[in-house]
Amino acid sequence: MKKKFLKVVFVISLFLSATTLAISQMNPSVLSDLYSQIELFSYALTTIQSEYVEEKTPKDLIYGSLKGMLSSLDPHSQFLEPDDYKELKTETQGKFGGLGIEISVKDGLLTVITPIEDTPAWKVGIKAGDRIVKIEDEVTKDLTLSDAVKKLRGDPGTSVHITVLRETEFKLHDFTIVREIIQVQDVKDVQILEDHIGYIRLAEFREDSHKEFHKGLEQLAKDGADSVILDLRNNPGGLLNVAIEITEEFLKEGELVVTTKGRRAAQTIETFSRPGPNKVLDWPIAILINEGSASGSEILAGALKDNKRAILVGTKSFGKGSVQSVIPLPDGSGLRLTTSKYYTPSGVSIHGKGIEPDVKVELVFPDEEEGEDAKKKIKKKGKEIENVFDDVKLKESNQSPEEIKLSKEQKERRERILADNQVQTAISVIKGVKVYSNFKNGNSQDPAPTPVAAEKTSPKSVSP
């Protein structure tokens, strides 16, 4: 027993000597405490190895210890075994079947940040804030985030059964969801709503999102827009550099976008807006956020709010504002470790708190249960009438059936957007800003729309 104990202490001492740089930066009193705690750990390790009812390898015990250590820090830090580390480095290159949800651990529970629009999870009715309490027959209480992701992923065409707790109803809901290859259209529904007010929905921040977003702004300017509503609801984030590039479209050169702060001064980085031709600096902006808006979308919303460039409408955002660094270990395993947090230009931490809207408005869902049968009959009758007029339109125009169908879908989307009470609030906010601006400037005419320049190039950076 004593021999084993000394051997373990020797191995841990070797490990510590290999991390001289990290140790040299420690406070002497902390270092002293570390060595005394390692002695306690070594004693517990040797006791388990010699006395536990089943034989365990040192690797099993060390890996188990590291998993527990990292999971005790926060929901986003984790120990990665060699296979998990390899998968993390290559997962963006492969194809896998998914449900179309972004998940995290919040208040100790596996929580849906947001269902991604037009994915299997969205279609079956999963909502932001749903707590996943069971995957198949397994309770998620002690499940790590990475293990939950593995269970939810699978081959396209296969199904998974999950049970969620919807706290707004305090009710359990069961869903069987068929996995698909998830393909997301980042920039959606670019259009003028009314009174020269443009609308763009940003679903996520991916590599080409800035390019597509800029095209959207160009189209709105061409169509006569003089203001815009940015819909970031249920946007889970994505690439940090892309979120910053889109934010810069609306900020003057030198204005602060975001600050990342770690424990050491060297980890504090301030990101300022870079120069760019013909930025959109005079359009009134309303940004829609909700509990599904996280990470990159919170950075964009926080930056434009603090720089007095936008008014936020909706409900408080999710509060995912931490940076994870992936650190390789000598045996091929790795650490995914939270090393810093995001702060808005006014110095407010996003993590765990979220971004508060300037105008709080809960989304009102139409009552789907009351008079359901009557609604279905009316809808069916209305569809039959629409089909008659579509046939007439087809005969009188040169449009193909596909073109007619597309224009109908666009009309339905527009009607759906305008029926959204949060969108209507954003429209009212922008109209109010316009009236105030005109009154302040002594100008009763509508302001001329700002031209948007062609796509500018920006240096790429690594996503958080």
What does this structure look like?
- The chain folds into four domains: 2-56, no CATH class; 95-181, PDZ domain (Pdz3 Domain); 185-363 and 420-464, 2-enoyl-CoA Hydratase, Chain A, domain 1 (Alpha-Beta Complex), CATH 3.90.226.10; 373-418.
- 39% of the residues lie in helices and 22% in strands.
- It has helices spanning 2-17, 20-24, 28-51, 58-71, 82-90, 120-124, 145-152, 209-222, 240-248, 296-306, 372-396, 401-418, 421-441; strands at 78-80, 97-98, 101-106, 109-115, 131-135, 138-139, 159-166, 171-178, 180-181, 187-194, 197-202, 227-231, 256-261, 269-272, 285-289, 311-314, 322-328, 334-343, 359-360.
- Strand 3 and strand 4 form a beta hairpin.
- Helix 1 (2-17) crosses helix 3 (28-51) and helix 9 (240-248) runs parallel beside helix 10.
- The protein starts with a helix and ends in a 23-residue tail after the last helix.
- 30% of the residues are buried.
Q: Name the poorly predicted regions.
A: 13-18, 91-95, 368-372, 453-464
How does the major sheet shape up?
A: 6 strands, mixed
Beta-strand content bin: 15-25%
CATH homologous superfamily label of the largest domain: 2-enoyl-CoA Hydratase, Chain A, domain 1
CATH architecture classification name of the largest domain: Alpha-Beta Complex
From the N-terminal CA to the C-terminal CA, the straight-line distance is 45 Å
Query: Class by helix and strand content?
Result: alpha+beta
- Order of strands in the sheet with the most strands? 10-11-12-15-16-19
Shape: globular
Q: Which fold does the CATH topology of the largest domain refer to?
A: 2-enoyl-CoA Hydratase, Chain A, domain 1
Helix count, DSSP H or I runs of 4 or more residues: 13
Number of strands: 19
Q: Which class of the largest domain in CATH terms?
A: Alpha Beta
Q: How many structural domains does the protein architecture include? A: 4
Could you tell me the radius of gyration in angstroms? 27 Å
Mean pLDDT: 82
Helicity level: 25-40%
